Amino acid sequence: MRIVIITITLISVTISSAYATLIDRGNGMIYDNVLDITWLQDANFAQTSGYDSDGNMTWQESMDWADSLLFGGYQDWRLAETALIDPTCTKPSTPEGLYCTGSELGYMFWANLGMTSPGPISSSTSPYLDLFTNIQDGVYWSQTTYLPDPTLAYVMNFSNGDQGITAKNQRSTKSRFAWAVRTGDVLSVPEPSTFLLLSFSLVVIFLLPFTGKSHRYNPGLN
User: Residue 72, by phi and psi: left (phi above 0), alpha (psi -120 to 50) or beta?
Assistant: First the structure.
């Protein structure tokens, strides 16, 4: 019975650890298992990779960069999406304003990185912040076009948490960065530690009936 309890505990710990919001998959990729998307660990990889001198790009340049990106064996990278109706925003019908967690960038800022009031993302005290590199206290493009005016696109300001719209060709007057994301996980098999722990637990369960011997008292033998 004690072995069964230990085994169940091990499985429970393994399962619960898999439900963290952000999971470092290694090789420069971070998985969000709430939104089921994978982020580049480097939030200014366009600069780091040498694609752009500082990562400050127009919307079209950012879209082209993400579309051409080959990273971790994947070619389906894109810019983040913005929900066109977001009741979490202070201006939900637009959607613009603060506290917008319906968009992928907004969810990163307010939920994953734990911001509770307007301010630069560098002031976040969330341990998840350390999972990433080169997050800018600046504006990040989303791929979503503002429908009333196709020359505008949605952005998320990581210096104060404000979601809004801006001209797609804007680059020089204010910094506009690109952070690549892809739909889904990048891990199709269990992580090694998880796989080994589950395998051990299953072996223990399988062998349990054979670990003890049955001693039956026969009154006819002395």
Answer: left
pTM above 0.70, yes or no: yes
Cβ pair 174, 193 in contact under 8 A: no
In the chain, what are the domain boundaries? 2-185
Backbone angles phi, psi at 183, to 5 degrees: -75, 135
Q: Measured between alpha carbons, how far is residue 66 from residues 30, 77, 115, 175, 200 in Å?
A: 16, 6, 26, 17, 41
Contact by Cβ (8 Å): 77, 71? yes
Q: Where are the beta strands (DSSP E) in the chain?
A: 22-26, 29-32, 37-40, 139-145, 152-157, 163-167, 176-177, 181-183
Q: What is the pLDDT along the chain (222 residues), one digit of tens a residue?
A: 444 333 333 333 333 334 458 999 999 999 999 999 999 999 999 999 999 999 999 999 999 999 999 999 999 999 999 999 999 999 999 999 999 999 999 999 999 999 999 999 999 999 999 999 999 999 999 999 999 999 999 999 999 999 999 999 987 666 899 999 999 999 754 445 544 554 555 444 455 454 554 444 344 544
Residue 11 is encoded by which pair of tokens? 């499985």
